[in-house]
């Protein structure tokens, strides 16, 4: 009997030992963890400036200078025909080119009565006499062009009548268009002329044959 109780107790101890170990492990895992609080913040005051020391201002960036406005180049215009462009500022210097009225040139320099210029069209540089240049644009100083008159308008009625008579006689195929003409043999045409014979050609031989309508038609077509 004593041996059985001892063996039973030993078995009980062996069974309870693992359970106690498990309880011990889970008991430690379930215990609340302690959170460590951060150390208190310490504020350190900076020392004040010693007496007699002034704060130095931070220098600002230097300001950029304002951009200067470049004036546009001066332009002059040639006044005159075949104005010479010379190599130097004198009237005996070599001629590099010639310009007509209204030609635009850019001023490069001035010397007394001469102006050094550059022509933008030809890109040539030289000197032109000051008196041959003007400030105004071409349309401001060019002389107005006189209206052309048609020659037929300038001619009088008598002159136009002569032209019409001459053209009519030249259009006749023979030599006797009018009575005052002569035939190829030198004889006067008289009544043998086409003008004197009825029918056929009717050439214009005298000023009375020219009507105002003929004059107006000639002026309109010439």
Automatic annotation (TrEMBL):
Which Pfam family would be a valid example here? SH3_3
What domain of life? Bacteria
Q: Which residues form the SH3b domain?
A: 73-137
Keyword set, alphabetical order: Plasmid
Protein name (record): SH3b domain-containing protein
Q: Which organism is it from?
A: Methylobacterium bullatum
């Amino acid at each position: 009997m004593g041996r059985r109780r001892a063996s039973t107790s030993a078995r009980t101890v062996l069974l309870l030992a693992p359970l106690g170990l498990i309880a011990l492990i889970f008991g430690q895992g379930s215990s609340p963890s302690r959170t460590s609080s951060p150390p208190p913040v310490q504020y350190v005051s900076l020392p004040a400036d010693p007496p007699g020391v002034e704060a130095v201002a931070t220098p600002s960036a230097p300001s950029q200078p304002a951009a200067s406005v470049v004036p546009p180049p001066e332009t002059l215009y040639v006044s005159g025909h075949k104005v010479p462009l010379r190599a130097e500022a004198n009237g005996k210097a070599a001629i590099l080119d010639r310009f007509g009225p209204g030609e635009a040139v850019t001023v490069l320099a001035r010397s007394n009565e001469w102006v050094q210029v550059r022509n933008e069209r030809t890109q040539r540089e030289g000197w032109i006499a000051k008196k041959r240049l003007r400030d105004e644009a071409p349309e401001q100083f060019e002389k107005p062009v006189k209206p052309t008159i048609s020659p037929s308008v300038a001619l009088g009625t008598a002159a136009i009548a002569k032209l019409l008579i001459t053209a009519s006689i030249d259009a006749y195929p023979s030599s006797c268009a009018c009575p005052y003409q002569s035939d190829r043999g030198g004889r006067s045409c008289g009544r043998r002329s086409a003008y004197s014979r009825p029918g056929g050609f009717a050439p214009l031989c005298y000023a009375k044959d020219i009507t105002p309508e003929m004059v107006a038609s000639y002026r309109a077509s010439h």
